[in-house]
């Protein structure tokens, strides 16, 4: 059938037989290739998808910088080293210790990644403003810096599919306070930092019978709890973690989570192999209990991250 159609075309075009045979060979070769794909079910490999995504990836980077995407996992394994951006001014996620070395939850997670990859670790101190640009421009291979996932940020980088660390606002108080929900707050006095997110949350959702005392900053709010001027406080888990660590005899604990904004690992857009490895890493560490151990060490409480 193909030959009949082809001869008809040759006659209409008035091409010479020799030239027609050459073209016919090309046409039949193309049809043969198509037939192979059809027989295989038209499957597309993961490498094809990754290559397409990498080629089409576009990131927003500072003017004059060059975005680097794709192949990071292979490059890291080949080089025997990984560069991970961690916070330098956000305890207990990351800060500079008294010995001058980085320390914190995110720093320890970065060390676990290097151990599992069996490569050396280079910590890249970052702030909240430069952590994403550092990733985009290749100054860091990953970002582990108490990074929340938002649709706006997802335009520029990939995020791990599940969180690796908690970040939330909650109600905190002594272990003997029988509180596990907003409905249990009636009859208690709650301290909040005036104008903070927790002030707005408690004011909106607390039931009748709750007394809210507002203080000018977090340190005064915490002092009020320690001095028994209030029964409970509403604050962020990172602030509470410091209080719990510094005052172990106060027996302070989280009563319930008010608003959740967990932390994700940032991966350069286009790095699908690295993204998949990071996702497996997070699942493995949550199942193994490593993240639970780090949460107890740095936040003073069990790991509380949502499961999706």
Explain the layout of strands and helices.
Layout: H1 2-13, H2 17-39, H3 46-56, H4 72-79, E1 81-87, E2 89-90, E3 94-96, E4 102-103, H5 105-117, E5 120-126, H6 131-136, E6 142-147, E7 157-159, E8 168-174, E9 189-193, H7 197-205, E10 211-215, H8 218-226, E11 232-236, H9 237-246, E12 252-260, E13 264-268, H10 272-288, H11 290-298
Parallel strand pairs: 1-5, 1-6, 9-10, 9-11
Antiparallel strand pairs: 2-3, 3-4, 6-13, 7-13, 8-11, 8-12
Percentage of residues in strands: 15-25%
Order of helices and strands, N to C?
HHHHEEEEHEHEEEEHEHEHEEHH
Structural class: alpha/beta
Tell me which CATH architecture of the largest domain applies here. 3-Layer(aba) Sandwich
What count of domains describes the coordinates? 3
- The number of helical runs is 11
Q: What is the helical fraction, as a range of percent?
A: 40-55%
The stretches of 5 or more residues where confidence is low (pLDDT under 50) are: 1-10, 12-67
Q: On the 0-100 scale, what is the average pLDDT? A: 81
Report the C-alpha radius of gyration, rounded: 29 Å
Quaternary state, please? single chain
Distance between the termini: 55 Å
Q: Name the strands of the widest sheet in spatial order.
A: 5-1-6-13-7
């Amino acid at each position: 059938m193909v030959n009949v159609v082809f001869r008809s075309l040759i006659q209409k075009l008035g091409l010479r037989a020799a030239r027609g045979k050459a073209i016919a060979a090309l046409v039949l070769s193309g049809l043969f290739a198509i037939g192979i794909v059809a027989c295989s079910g038209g499957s597309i490999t993961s490498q094809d998808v990754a290559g397409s995504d990498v080629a089409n990836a576009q990131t927003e980077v500072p003017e004059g910088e060059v975005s680097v995407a794709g192949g990071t996992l292979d490059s890291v394994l080949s080089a025997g080293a990984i560069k991970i951006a961690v916070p330098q001014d956000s305890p207990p996620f990351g800060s500079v210790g008294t010995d001058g070395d980085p320390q914190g939850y995110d720093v320890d997670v970065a060390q676990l990644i290097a151990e599992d990859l069996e490569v050396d670790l280079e910590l890249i101190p970052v702030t909240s403003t430069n952590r994403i640009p550092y990733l985009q421009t290749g100054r860091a291979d990953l970002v582990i810096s108490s990074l929340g996932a938002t649709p706006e940020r997802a335009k520029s980088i990939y995020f791990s599919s599940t969180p690796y660390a908690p970040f939330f606002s909650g109600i905190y108080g002594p272990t003997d306070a029988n509180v596990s929900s907003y409905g249990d707050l009636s009859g208690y006095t709650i301290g909040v930092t005036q104008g903070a997110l927790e002030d707005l949350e408690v004011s909106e959702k607390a039931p009748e019978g709750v007394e809210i005392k507002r203080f000018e900053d977090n340190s005064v709010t915490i002092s009020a709890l320690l001095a028994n001027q209030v029964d409970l406080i509403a604050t962020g888990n990172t602030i509470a973690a410091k209080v719990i660590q510094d005052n172990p005899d106060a027996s302070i604990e989280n009563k319930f989570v008010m608003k959740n904004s967990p932390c994700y690992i940032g991966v350069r857009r286009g790095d699908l192999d690295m993204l998949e490895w990071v996702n497996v890493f997070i699942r493995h560490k949550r199942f193994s209990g490593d993240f639970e151990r780090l949460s107890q060490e740095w936040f003073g409480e069990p790991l509380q991250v949502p499961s999706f």
